[in-house]
Amino acid sequence: MPRLKNHPHLEGHTASRGLLLRNIILGGQDGIVNVLGIVLGVATATNSNGIVLLAGLAATFAESISMAAVAFTSTRAEEEHYQAEVKRELEEMDRIPDMERKEIEEIYRAKGFSGKLLGQVVDKITSNRKIWLETMMQEELGLENPSESMSSFWQGVLVGLSAVVGSLVPVAPFFFLPISAAIPVSLAASLALLFAVGAGKSQFTSGRWLYGGIELMIIGGAAALVGYLVGVVFQVPV
Prior knowledge:
The chain is an all-alpha fold and 238 residues long. It has one domain. The longest helix has 47 residues. It is elongated. The relative contact order is 0.18.
């Protein structure tokens, strides 16, 4: 049976799935944790469903827009940095090709190549300008082309939508239940979803799903506790 080889197309799909999961977790986790603390604090302070919903929805959309903007601008910055490094490498390949070739040689010597084989590898890479550039970007600078994955615009959209969905979880019970019943339901639903998100993230990365789920649930619980204590301190009659 022939050996399976790494396929860049399959690797690209794997990287895209990882980026997709990261953005969903980033937005959803941030939305749940931040809005949960606000909702419980306001609910404890005012004992009013209307005020809780107003505060929760305002926080939901402000948080989502903010997260989307951060995801967009940070990804755009990565893209601009990558393109600036591409321009610099191309200029050096034109201006000082012998030095750039020497860098390729040193990279592959460090990987264990030597003698005639090393010379053949260097000749092969530097004979193709595109491969030469990609090798310098990945092996020398440790940079991957961000434009080959999800664009900065769609990353911002995905993070923002995930934040909206996550934020609505702690808010939703206050649409249907009185304050006394909505608070424990909101807390339980939020912590359960945080556990699921943390477990899913850790299963995808380290495989320690239980640890990841508990860790994220504790973070959410800490936010809820802070919100509750603030509400107790500033409790007002309605």
